[in-house]
Amino acid sequence: MNIQIFNLLEDYFNQITDQVKKRLLERRPVYAEFSDKNLTEMIDHCLDGYIDLVVTGQTDALDKIYRLFSRIIVQRGGEFSDVFVITLIISSVVRGILAEEYEDLKEDDKLEKFNKALDQLETEAHTTACHFLDVFHEFFDKRIEDNNQYLQDTEKELGIDLGEFRMLADTKH
Predict the structure, then answer these.
(1) pLDDT tier, 1 (very low <50, low <70, confident <90, very high otherwise)
(2) Is residue 132 part of a domain?
(3) Domain total in the chain
(4) For position 120, which CATH number holds?
(5) Mean pLDDT of 20-25
(6) What is the pTM of this model?
């Protein structure tokens, strides 16, 4: 764990949340439907999960958050990318704050520390983004499974073949 990233995330938590919220509202209309309080809480939870990943290397908190947000956004008519973009925006905001922290790079070890912190930030951002894709894929598979089960139950009840309405159940490759 890079203590610099952890400290930066903790020290600038509210500023990061505010900047992420501003960018989400500018770029993704679905987020305008949330109250300010709920949107702030959503972003805070994402950032907490991101911090947990940085500190522990575990994605359990992010899994829980992504499962919940995927359902909420989809129910509100949002797109897959509306949830995915949160990860990218957090990374972008943190990268900007990190650059500001190391503006005055006169000493070689500051540049080395900055590059190390930036490398970890990018690694965590990629891990988070890839993990979100896995969680969303799991969510998608569950929706297909539920749909197909509903069709099977309806077939039994009505005694008809609804096979043409089934979705591909095996989406894992």
Answers:
(1) low
(2) yes
(3) 1
(4) 1.10.490
(5) 95
(6) 0.71
